[in-house]
Amino acid sequence: MSTNEYETEIDDFDATSEDKYTKLFWKCYRKDFFNVLKVVKNQQLQIFIHICQKVQPSTNKFIGTYARMSKEIRISQATIAKMIGILKRENFIVKVQNGVWMVNPNMFMYGDDTRRTYLSKTYREYVASSQEAQEKKDKKNKNSNNKNFANIRKLVDKAEEMTGQPHTK
After folding, report:
1. The pTM is what?
2. For residue 30, which of 16, 44, 20, 40 has the smallest C-alpha distance?
3. Tens of pLDDT along 114-130?
4. 61 found inside a domain
């Protein structure tokens, strides 16, 4: 079997577990879900499974601080933080607030298409809010760096004035 044949098989795979009474189901959305799994290694898989198991079906959110997850699955907080970073970068989760995350419903969710539509809108809003917060943080850091540079420049100028010698690199 060639690599392309294998990838085609994965693209055509749907993992569902239907509830025959309510017609609601957990669903993994093929390609995007498997793309996330491609970057998961060793203990990170345990973290990924833990997150999927803890997702609240009605909101597609899970609650878990690094400390709490570390205690529950006995993996270091540093490893958990690294995995959360990977999942954020792969657009599998977005931070809602400290210790609260939302899983991308276009990759993994419980419910029907109506719920998916609603959860997708909510997820996009959290992503936009997260991006705005990051931009503000970046701007603040840039301004802080500019102020630090200006203060250093003033100190160098003062030192040059006091010694009568120009500063050399």
Report:
1. 0.63
2. 16
3. 888 999 999 999 999 98
4. yes
